Amino acid sequence: MKPKLLCKSLLRSLPRRSRITCLSLETQSEKVGFFVSVGLTNSSIRFIFGYGVVPKGVCAIKITVIGCGGAFSDNDYLYHQSFMIEENGRKLFFDMGKDVYPHAMKKQGLSMKDVDSILITHGHDDHIGGLGTLGLRRYDWKNKPTHWSKAPDPSYAPKLYLAESFKDELWGALRLGLETNEGFVGTLDTFFQVVPIANNQHWDFEGWDMQLVSQIHVMTGSTIMSAHGLFMEKGEHRIFLTGDTQFFQPRQVMYFYDKATFIITDCETAGTNLKFPEGTEVYDTIQDGEKVTLPWPGKEVDPNGMMVMELLAQGIEPYKWGCIKFMSGVHSTYAEHAGYPSANATKLTPEIKKKTWMSHYGDHVVLHKDAFGNSVNWQEQARKDGLAGFVIPGQVFEFK
Ligand SMILES: [Zn+2]
């Protein structure tokens, strides 16, 4: 809370050796903050009192980008994806990938003590890889509680929000590192204050209405791996962090894209060749002299195991470019967000594009190259294509 201090000028005139004590009270409609300052000058003691009022419902939420690289990011700039959502001193981390704790957090001047809560979208290493280390380091090794609620001070265990159906899966991924300990058996509840979110459940985070939005991330044929994105709402602000997702299916998810005032989505940038003009025919490779068209290429494409979605095959074979990265197919892509004809996907409206920031992209973006080695300024390109841009580590979004 930041009360509008009516004594700003008085504060400035305070003696150097001053103590300020703040107190805040909440009424139904507003928060009132009081402060008392005791200052010591050479000859006297001075007291100053002040107060400020902040109406409730005024948001001051802040989202800091801690890391925003894709799974195959391999530099110490982008790191893996994590956003820190901050309100009233509480810090909720949206995903905690492999590079996030401690490296990316350290870079933003944060330590493990800054983690109040974590929300995990799904079980890939670039989203959960930092969780085990954080759990172990935060653990109360002196008292060794087997459940956080039995600890003398349960605050060692960060809150862990996740879809109810995902709890066992996550433990499956973390179990090897956290279960067998000297003298006791650990569970997820040993290291985290797990808050399972049931289907269609809403919960409160500092006055924000929070909701998970499940989307298709990976499909084997018999199993679908969902990614549980976050939709949060307060006042006029409606923030949608998608997590990892294949390009959305309008009928089901368009509702959230329309409703949101601010979106951060995953965006795969591999396979995008910005040098080729829009409207170009798209092929994945050449087989037996035949151009094979999209959509998704089959198993036998490309001898190097590289699948190229967006490539002009005007006599040019894709695998001639050593720098082409394969596309995973489990993320929404830049071409889809930008609405290139080659993406063969539903086009976003200009209104949705304007509020859409992109994350979870490849290293070549910061190297100002497209996946084919052409020089590209991606931020400029994104603006040209009507999108808000690519988020970068350290970037802060404030909602007031
Ligand atoms: Zn993933």
What would you say this structure looks like, in words?
The chain is of the alpha/beta class. The protein folds into two domains: 349 residues, Metallo-beta-lactamase, Chain A, CATH 3.60.15; 40 residues, no CATH class. The strands form five sheets. A seven-stranded mixed beta sheet has the order 11-8-7-6-5-4-21. Strands 12-13-14-15-16-19-20 form a seven-stranded mixed beta sheet. Strands 1-2-3 form a three-stranded antiparallel beta sheet, with no helix packed on it. Zinc ion binds next to loops.
Low-confidence stretches: 1-14, 278-325
Largest sheet: spatial strand order: 11-8-7-6-5-4-21
Percent of residues in β-strands: 25-35%
Sheet having the most strands: 7 strands, mixed
Architecture of the largest domain, according to CATH?
4-Layer Sandwich
Distance between the termini: 12 Å
Whole-angstrom Rg: 25 Å
CATH superfamily of the largest domain: Ribonuclease Z/Hydroxyacylglutathione hydrolase-like
Supply the CATH class of the largest domain. Answer: Alpha Beta
Rounded mean pLDDT is 79
List keywords for this structure.
400 residues; alpha/beta; Metallo-beta-lactamase, Chain A; 7-stranded mixed β-sheet; 18% helix; binds zinc ion
Task: Furnish the topology, listing elements before pairings.
Blueprint: H1 8-12, E1 17-26, E2 30-40, E3 45-55, E4 61-67, E5 82-87, E6 90-94, H2 100-107, E7 117-119, H3 125-128, H4 131-138, E8 159-163, H5 167-178, E9 180-181, E10 184-185, H6 188-191, E11 193-197, E12 202-205, E13 208-219, E14 224-234, E15 237-241, H7 250-259, E16 262-266, E17 283-287, E18 290-293, H8 334-338, H9 350-354, E19 356-359, H10 363-366, H11 378-384, E20 389-390, E21 396-399
Parallel strand pairs: 6-7, 7-8, 8-11, 15-16, 16-19, 19-20
Antiparallel strand pairs: 1-2, 2-3, 4-5, 4-21, 5-6, 9-10, 12-13, 13-14, 14-15, 17-18
The protein binds zinc ion.
